[in-house]
Specification:
By secondary structure, the protein is an alpha+beta fold. The chain has helices at residues 3-12, 58-75, 94-110, 160-169, 176-183, 189-194, 209-220, 235-240, 243-252, 268-277, 311-314; strands at residues 20-22, 30-31, 37-47, 79-89, 114-122, 126-136, 150-155, 201-204, 223-227, 259-264, 282-289, 293-297, 303-304. The chain contains eleven helices and 13 strands. β12 (293-297) and β13 form a beta hairpin. Bound molecules: adenosine-5'-diphosphate and magnesium ion. Adenosine-5'-diphosphate binds at residues 6, 9, 24-27, 85, 87, 115, 117-120.
Length: 316
């Protein structure tokens, strides 16, 4: 579409990297992957009215479009390097694009991600970002490889983004700390790097802990037990909802972009210390067990039916 809009984007997302041999402007980008590393590639689309409410400010869309992709790279233990941006706009709204690109650029600079190209077309508002990064051969963190006896961990706190969304839907004003988790997620890139060679599986929590840990169990052909009382929730979430709602949000709420990972339980102290050094909390929330599927355990080890644990109200 409009050359002007591409220029608006290019000027605001001006991260330069020596490994971009040829960036925006030609038919395609030329990128130098470091020797000995594997290219890690992912893409995610945000559609207006589906992945963000119509009327979301352009700054939040720009930030989140890149953030959700860096979260996927983080979950692979990859170091982000480059992004491609396919923008579909209802009309050539320069102000929207400026505000979008300003925030996309701020986030890209913080993570040293160069925008290497993209596409700009007309249609219903949608943003597709492709993120590219690298990881040394054989060090990528995947969803398969969890073994019975491993501990299950999660970074940070769970349920904040879903808590904010719930309050918005109930027309309650949500605390800033929760709104920030919903609109400006901070993917756990540094934690993903720190977990290389330590975690034996890793996934980012984008659809909710039950769903995402469920993927790990399915791909690892194993089961897991989660201790309801161990789920980490933020002070802001705890101040906004009763304990049971907090638990349900932590289990089934999406959009937190924390990492859920497994590792031999003997490495717990090492893991918590390594993540603390980069300012990232980590909590052991359960264990990998023989069998399949997830079980939720209450105080004293009694099983809580997952169907009653918020799954239904929050699943999508
Ligand atoms: P083509 O017709 O070859 O696809 P485009 O006009 O779509 O050319 O793109 C021209 C250049 O601008 C290409 O290098 C492309 O990667 C880049 N580009 C287009 N849209 C975007 C965008 N939204 N973000 C970043 N780069 C873009
Ligand atoms: Mg094009």
């Amino acid at each position: 579409m409009e050359f002007d809009l591409i220029e608006v984007i290019r000027a605001r997302v001006n991260v330069t990297r020596s490994d971009v041999a040829l960036g925006i402007g030609d038919d395609a980008a030329l990128l130098d992957v470091p020797a000995g590393q594997q290219l890690v590639a992912c893409t995610d689309t945000l559609v207006a009215g589906v992945h963000f409410p119509v009327g979301t400010v352009p700054e939040d869309i720009g930030w989140k479009a890149l953030a959700v992709n860096l979260s996927d790279l983080a979950a692979m233990g990859a170091e982000p390097a480059w992004a491609l941006l396919a923008l579909t706009l209802p009309d050539a709204d320069a102000t929207f694009v400026e505000r979008f690109a300003e925030s996309f650029g701020e986030f890209a600079r913080a993570h040293r991600v160069a925008l290497a190209g993209g596409d700009t077309t007309q249609g219903p508002l949608a943003v597709t970002v492709t993120a590219l990064g690298f990881v040394p051969h054989d060090l990528a963190l995947t969803r398969s490889g969890a073994r019975a006896g491993d501990a299950v961990f999660v970074t940070g706190t769970l349920g904040d983004a879903a808590g904010a969304l719930k309050m918005l839907m109930e027309v309650r004003s949500a605390p800033a700390a929760l709104l920030a988790r919903l609109h400006r997620p901070e993917p756990r890139v540094a934690a993903g790097l720190a977990l290389r060679g330590i975690a034996n599986t890793c996934i980012d929590v984008s659809d909710g802990l039950l769903a995402d840990l469920g993927h790990v169990c399915a791909d690892s052909k194993i089961g897991a037990e989660i201790e309801a009382d161990a789920l980490p929730v933020s002070p802001a979430l705890a101040a906004s909802f009763d304990a049971e709602t907090c638990r349900d949000l932590a289990l089934a709420g999406g959009d937190d972009y924390e990492l859920c990972f497994t590792a031999p339980s003997a490495r717990e102290t090492e893991i918590v210390e390594a993540l603390a050094r980069i300012g990232c909390g980590a909590t052991r929330i359960g264990r990998i067990v023989a069998g399949s599927g997830l079980r939720l355990l209450g105080a004293g080890g009694n099983e809580i039916q997952i169907a009653h644990a918020g799954w239904e109200h929050f699943s999508r």
